[in-house]
Records
---
Amino acid sequence: MKLYDVFISYSSKDQKVAEGICGYLEGNHCRCFVAYRDIPKGKNWPSAIPSAIKGSKVMVAVFSEDFNLSDETDREIILAAKYKIPILTYRITDTTFSETKEYYLQGLNWLDAFPEPEKCFGVLYDSVIKLVEGRTSFSETCENNDKDESNVSLVNGEKHKLHTIQIGGSYGFISSDEDIAIPCKWSDAYSFANGFALVKDENNLWGFINGKGELIIPCKWKDANAFSDGMASVRDANGKWGYINNEGELVIPCKWEWTILFTEGLAWVEDENGKKGYIDKTGELVIPCKWDGARAFSEGLARVQERNGKWGFIDRNGSQIIKCKWKDAGSFSEGLVSVQDKNDMWGFVDKNGNTVIPSKWKYASSFSEGIGMVKDKNGKYGFINLQGTTIIPCKWKSAWAFLEGLATVEDDNNKRGYINKQGELVIPCQWDKASGFNNGTAWVQVGESWRLIDKSGTFVRI
């Protein structure tokens, strides 16, 4: 199963940069593997690294002189190539590729992040999310309702949610009580979303199955993303993207360089010039391709980027509502959006671009359940309310958004637990990894495996 979004490959001498990348990506909910933190003490590194690379969606190579000369990083990028894991090279020194690095990395795109690597974390995130966006992660459980139960299996006469599992290099699905529901016969798979799961066959082509394991949409696509709003983006043999409906019919021709999920009835697309615009569900280009960057609509506004690298927001008519003056920005949630100013500090503005919460945080995420996660000048995480008042002190090494009344936090020992909205630690920090709650349960990592817990911290099935 894909346990991580990003495997960070780095030289031990560049650990501080790797830590910064990890903090930024995980602050934006991209789960990372970094060896210094994620390999337990006493664990054999040569056995841990390959499984972590294979269990990741993309590798970020922190390229420096030390990285260039390292035999260990040679092995890691060779494994990434073997497992067909995309590699993003993040150059933190102006060093020429040599030997193995030249063979594996020279022909790929890279980001020049020197002399101040931390100032390019946002650009790196945008590149990473382009590869992983639209794919549901292992930790995300499926929504179930009366209208659509195709992601639900009957085990011993009872309904159970389905999740990906990997056995012997093949993928299948287990139910929430850990019984095998769909046999492991796929070369890759992603969790259910909106009644369908993405699966890849032995020819490296993608299709979709239902909750019974039936192949509803044949494996014929070079790449694909999960269903959202009744449509899924797919890439054909020519490398172009379009959209299919729930029946697998191509309803928007494959002619775009890149596409993403529909949200609020619109999806951003990239043309042959690398410019982004937005189409509706008929495939009509309703907002011209003129932006250097674009993100999904949220609460009626979408984040767009001009050539100068600054971000602003447009409405559904393509009118610019908030000028492109921010170094980075999130998505609107509960009427506010987090923005990064010229001094690299974060605050919040409303839908008219008015500052509601001043830029004084090293990082700030979108609001969830009336609470926003922030990072202070000391690098610690806490939470604020919609008025900007700190309601949970910044004392955690890392933190994630509130979901169903609880938020995941990480202590100084790199262990994760859960707090309530009063900041009380209601489930002790004892897990190496932990997801947010969904329908009363959350995934936690126990050794090398994942288990479900309820809100008391008890395993759903022991």
---
Amino acid sequence: MINDLRDFAKLEGFKLHLEPSLFPIHEVVYETMGILMEDIRAAKMNVQMAVSDDLPPIITDRTHVEQIVTNLLSNAVKYTDEGGHIQVRAEVRTDFVHLAVSDTGVGIDEKELKRLFEPFFCSEDPFVRARQGTGLGLVIVKMLVERQGGELTVESVKGEGSTFAFSVPVAGEQ
């Protein structure tokens, strides 16, 4: 919670320092999956990965891309019932690497989708309320993606699941 508040304050004040480096995004995805694997196994979730190791490298702040991927994947695990499915896929779209995390989780009501990126917003859904959160994670993710020249999108259907996706420029295209 403290880290979320600190990061939010830095982003709001444009004081967050980005340190670009060249790296393959698949490394970040697989490292994050490794960290979350115990939770995934405990929840008996099925994970499908479509993240090729031959995607072009990106040049951006690796630490913040790790934060973005970790937040999206951990949210998919957190808001999906035991036995659910998570899919992670990445592809090149024009001059961007596009990474999407889909789940068969609780989904988000259409009226709540409009407020999803408001600081401290929390769903009225009891399943969501039972999980811990600050209401800042997705706000921070959106700000981090945009500060690095990318875009964050969300598609969701209540009771069916969600897909959060972001894009970041490939190396040499920023």
---
Amino acid sequence: MTELFGRLAPGADVESARAELQAVHSAIVNAHPETYAVRPTSGSTPSRCAIRSRRRARTVLLVLLAASG
């Protein structure tokens, strides 16, 4: 239900960013337990992989990129 996105700062490593995103996700779930009755699993995927695996999302993002350009 909730997707978090993050961009790595220069010099940051993936593991620390992943841990920070998981902490934010846990805080959101704990703040709204009625919304998250079933505990979702969390994970992280590089955005390029996520976009490539979802053809519709890729098309929408490319259209938005073209429109903003």
